[in-house]
Amino acid sequence: MLTVRHTSPRRLDVGLTLGPLGHGPADPTFHRAADGTLWRTSLLRSGPVTQRFVPAGPHAVVVHLWGDGAREAAEALPVLLGEDDDAAGFAPPPQVRDAHRRAAGMRIPRSGRVLEALVPAVLEQRVQTVTAHRAWRWLVRRYGTRAPGPAPAGVPGGLFVVPDARTWARVPVWDWHRAGVDPGRARTVTRCALVAPRLEEAAAMPRAEARPRLEKVQGVGVWTSAEVAQRAFGDADAVSVGDFHLPAAVGWALSGERTDDAGMLRLLAPYAPHRHRVVRLLTLSGRHRAPARGPRTPLVDHRAH
Question: Which residues form a coiled coil (predicted)?
């Protein structure tokens, strides 16, 4: 085990900062413990790693790391925890000023791991979130590897590390079906896995070039590349254009009216380069839900097809 204490010159809320890297309450790569610690696994160039984050005051966190990737992960901790996230000059809209004050320790994280962010984003395309999280959970437990180090209490079966690109590319069609993933999304994940080295390069590219690199893969559009940019690139300005719920939620919160993607971008334009930060704060403030209209969209289970 490697232990590192990270102290920031600014307030640091590890839970709010790293929260977007988890995918559902039973994500086998991510766990929030009842005592406030946070567990996360990752697959780095040097190997797998398990990280346990223990808050140590408003500015510090103690991190325990296990696995071959521990040293590399320790060196990348400042970047992961958003030390490069510069919110200087950000003036939040009135609707989220209180949330901005309360979430003073929230950063936009930068994991630097493109495929780890890309696969769950593809699984979330055009389906209900609960369906995507179920698929992610099933696939990681079936094709991932056991996480190094101890397992957190209360996690049956322990944590897992995501599959590598070669394994993702070899998932057979019947297991995509068993996971509830339609052929279109399955093919997109396979295409991404086959060119994973080129996609991983995007993490070190200028942001104006990074997202177009991802979007060269058939099936990866602006919504998916934005979801990756928010997590892997630490992009505080990436807006998930094409989201089913987001435009109405942003429109309702900032103008009192539902809107479409174009209207959402107009409302967020004054806050560039912090548009994603505004969306995160809207979520934290509870102002991100427009009144429901009509019946809830039924869940589609592709395993039954």
Answer: none
